[in-house]
Amino acid sequence: MISFDPGLIIWTTIIFTLLLVVLKKFAWKPILHAVDERNQLIKESLQEAEKARTEMSELTANNEKIMTQARADRDVLLKEARDMKNEIIAQAKEQANNEAEKLVSSAREQISNEKMKALTELKNQVADLSIEMAEKVLAAELKDAEKQKELVSKALRDNN
User: Is the pLDDT reported for residue 24 higher than 70?
Assistant: First the structure.
């Protein structure tokens, strides 16, 4: 059962009041000060976190710009390299074609020269054979003195 004691209530109230005064004088201000400092620290941390988030967003945007620029530069370099490769291949093909044309032209010229040489040699042999045959025919015809006179007179008539 609960008993009601007025002296206990008074002493409890006095001790509680004294406790509140002591706490207010010695503990309340430091506790409030610590809570205020903690609130300020939390606010500053939130501001720094927001600042870091903003900086991270800016860095991400800058990184994207840099990556985009790098990709564009890479594409330009690859295009230039492809163009250069195609140009080098075209030059090599042209040079090879020119060399082939030179070789074919040189071969044709050499063939033509050899042909002319062979024709000249053939003509010389035909001329030698013709002269030899004419000598033999003339020698046979000129054995007879009568035929010699006839041939000389015929030649003189033809010249006049």
Answer: yes
